[in-house]
Specification:
This protein has 755 residues and is an alpha+beta fold. Helices cover 26% and strands 21% of the residues. It contains 18 helices and 29 strands. Strands 10-11-8-18-15-16-17 form a seven-stranded mixed beta sheet, sandwiched between helices. Helix 14 runs parallel beside helix 18. The chain is globular and about 85 Å long.
Length: 755
């Protein structure tokens, strides 16, 4: 196949180029590229396979060149501030030995040729770093082969060097722009022919590289979901049922129709169980501008048929959960003989913990644009999982996948909320119903009152000690509505996937262990939120660990290390926790971050009156994190966090600046949920609606944060989520150290007098 040459002119610095619909239609499902080094069809190498990809893979899925030698690298993961649209392209560019100033990053559309695009679970680098290295190494080798053919020399004498290839014996140099056309005619090298850079050769990997979106993000020119504008577009605001699975009984739209700019009032189909990611139904107001749509929506008079979930009340449910964990549940881990061990204990300790529902509350509320015609559907959305929008649009429009295009905008935060497609489904439905492009804009109140909530939880922990003070028994009972309930309403207890986030895989060297899950029915939509069940399970485990320390008369850090026991590799596969090849759970690495953060924080240092230090550690998303929080408690009970030290061992990292930023953000996130964030429900309706009553941390409460990266040669692991879980327990442990007051329920509030 003949090479296609791009007409894009290079300019300075990496930029984002958006591919137009016209280009997409011209190219079909083939990536619009300039000189494709590998032909337009994806070619499979001999013996090639990858669990991350759903079809044969070729490097030209991710990289192409124009006639000037500019390298265009595709980012197939969604950018929400974590820097992945810079990180993975930089990995490819590094192995390709590209000049970063001659690299342009393009955002992928939703397409299965990229493999998994669900930017969730802290696994983008883990899942695709090696794939990007392979793509870059392949390009580098083919450019070296092209140079060898032009010069008539052995390829072994040719070496890529910063966007050019050098003939080592003679010193001759060819720029990549002079080599790409020849390289495009070459066969894709066998993977066994590839060579990879050693860490000392890296130009970008492991270095603090500014993100490609930095200028646009800091100058107000970045494009998020609500920034999309297309000719003829209308705006929609929707009055959704205030109770999950509620329905419209009747409505009056006379006042709404009188608003200048309101054009149509439409009823959307009601949701049916299981909720999954479907739109919730309700009444939509379509208008010529967003103000008219929102004003018209507010003037609707609607009588709702609320259904059985209207019985849900937070206070009553809290009592139910606590009563549940006081009784035996379904055993998920039985090690030794817990009943005998507790019965024979010289001393026992027990405690209960509670944490509420939480909302995602990302700075950008959901918004999406859809344009549906008779033969094409185009979507613009801040989606974490763009491929999931294709089958949804297929079902609504009756179109085929190659007639559906999903454009991914920047995400103004997500935390797991935007992996659900309900808000995009609303735009597709309304565009099909009206025949016009539609922007569905959620307000902050829509966002908080119609979320997929982080689950509410109760925990009961007990421990037994022998006469020497050693911990011989550990019992942990939990009850909380399961995430799986959104797919199957009959699921009324958490399973190994959820309990395995810090409870089922508790790493302490204790001979008798029992972990049990109790029943808890879901009456709102439950979803994953940054760090998922690790949040409250870390709160329970680390808080109780601190209680054990004081019961034993030990320093909390020393107690923590003592409970970890000797260095060993843990295997929980028999408990239903999926093992990830190449990522053993090694207690030495958890011990390492505990010791590192304690040293950096000056653990044991003299503190002023009213100050306290607390420590906590957690293994999550295959990374190891520990935190020390210093709190100051005033005489009136008000408190502030003075400083947080956080250490992370995430294996090999791509960009240390982004790892640090993610941990700084995790500290703020963790302190928010510990201090004031809480979703409550009254008669099935969410009480909170905006930041006045769903509180997140204010800037004047933000602490000094010090991030400590552990250098490691281990494979890359999670970064975005692992920093959250240890923050709340480290904080509550610090409050105890300062005051002697135990906090067993979140949120704490701004004053201990109200705790």
């Amino acid at each position: 196949m003949s090479a296609k040459v791009r007409s894009d002119k290079p300019d300075s610095g990496p930029v984002i180029r958006r591919v137009s619909r016209r280009d997409f239609l011209k190219a079909g499902s083939v990536l619009v590229v300039g000189v494709s080094l590998f032909g337009c069809a994806a070619k499979k190498r001999p013996g090639e396979s990858s669990p991350a990809l759903s079809e044969p893979w070729s490097p030209d899925v991710y990289v192409s060149f124009d006639a000037a030698g500019t390298a265009f690298i595709i980012s197939h993961r969604s950018e929400m501030g974590q820097g992945i649209r810079t990180g993975l392209p930089a990995v490819l560019a590094d192995e390709m030995d590209a000049d970063w100033s001659r690299v342009r990053v393009e955002q992928a559309t939703g397409n299965k040729k990229y493999g998994n695009q669900n930017t969730d679970g802290s696994w983008s680098v883990r899942g695709f770093m090696q794939r990007m290295r392979e793509a870059g190494a392949t390009v580098r080798l083919m450019l070296e082969q092209s140079a060898a053919e032009q010069w008539g020399v052995p390829v072994a004498e040719c070496k890529a060097d910063f966007h050019s290839v050098v003939h080592t014996p003679s010193g001759r140099v060819l720029d990549y722009r002079e080599l790409v056309a020849g390289a495009a005619e070459l066969p894709v090298p066998d993977q066994k022919q590839l060579t990879f850079k050693s860490p000392d050769q890296f130009r970008y990997i492991g270095k603090a590289l500014p993100i490609v979106d930095l200028h646009d993000m800091t100058h107000g020119t970045a494009n998020y979901g609500a920034d999309t504008r297309i000719p003829g577009m209308k705006y929609a605001a929707i009055a959704r049922p205030p109770v999950v699975f509620g329905k419209v009984k009747s409505y009056n739209a006379d006042k709404a129709k009188a608003v200048d700019g309101v054009e149509q009032i439409l009823e959307l189909p009601a949701a049916k169980a299981p909720s999954a990611y479907q739109a919730q139904g309700g009444i939509a107001v379509v208008a010529s501008n967003s103000w008219a749509a929102l004003r018209g929506r507010d003037l609707l008079t609607i009588e709702w048929e609320e259904g059985p979930n209207a019985e849900y009340n937070s206070e009553a449910f809290k009592k139910t959960l606590l009563n549940t964990v006081r009784q035996p549940g379904t055993p998920l881990r039985n090690q030794g003989d817990i009943a005998m061990a507790l019965g024979d204990s010289a001393e026992t300790l027990q405690a209960e913990y509670y944490a509420p529902h939480l909302a995602h509350a990302s700075m950008e509320p959901p918004a999406a644009v859809a344009s549906v015609t008779g033969d094409f559907c185009e979507i613009w959305a801040p989606s974490q999982d763009p491929q999931s929008l294709i089958p949804m649009a297929e079902k609504i429009t009756g179109l085929k996948p190659d007639q559906i295009r999903v454009n991914v905008t920047l995400l103004g935060g997500a935390f797991g909320r935007k992996s659900k497609c309900d808000f995009v489904e609303e735009a597709v439905l309304l565009s099909k119903m009206t025949g016009k492009p539609i922007l569905v804009q959620w307000s902050r109140e829509d966002d908080i009152r119609h979320d997929y909530y982080h689950t509410v939880s109760a925990q009961y922990l007990s421990a037994g000690f022998d006469k020497a003070g050693a911990v011989t028994a550990w019992r942990h009972r939990l009850a909380y509505p399961s995430i799986m309930s959104i797919f199957d309403p009959s699921v009324t207890a958490a399973g190994a996937m959820e309990v395995g986030m810090g409870a089922l895989n508790m790493p302490y060297d204790i001979p008798n262990v029992s972990v049990q899950a109790g029943q808890a029915e879901a009456m709102v939509r439950i979803g994953w939120l940054r760090s998922v069940c690790n949040i409250f399970q870390s709160f329970g485990v680390n808080s109780f660990t601190d209680e054990i320390a004081h019961s034993r008369g030990l320093d909390p850090k020393d107690n923590l290390l003592d409970l970890l026991g000797p260095d060993r590799t843990l295997d929980f596969a028999g408990l239903g926790i999926e093992a990830v090849e190449g990522y053993p759970f090694e207690t030495r690495r958890l011990r390492g971050v505990i010791e590192r953060v304690a040293e950096e924080a000056g653990w044991g240092r003299s503190l002023p009156s009213g100050h306290g230090l607390g420590i906590a550690a957690q293994y999550s998303f295959l990374s190891y994190v520990a935190a020390v929080v210093e709190v100051r408690v005033a005489e009136d009970g008000s408190w502030t966090v003075q400083r947080v030290d956080i250490a992370i061992d995430c294996g090999q990292y791509v960009n240390p600046d982004r790892v640090k930023a993610q941990q700084e953000g995790a500290v703020i996130f963790g302190l928010s949920l510990a201090r004031e964030s809480e979703i409550t429900v009254a008669n099935g309706r969410i009480v909170q609606g905006n930041f006045n009553n769903y509180r997140v941390l204010r800037i004047n409460k933000a602490p000094e944060t010090r991030v400590h990266l552990v250098e490691s040669t281990a494979p890359p692991a999670g970064v975005g989520e692992p920093g959250v879980p240890p923050i709340a327990p480290a904080l509550t442990n610090a409050i105890f150290a300062a005051t002697g007051t135990r906090i067993r329920e979140l949120p704490i509030g701004g004053s201990l007098n109200n705790a």
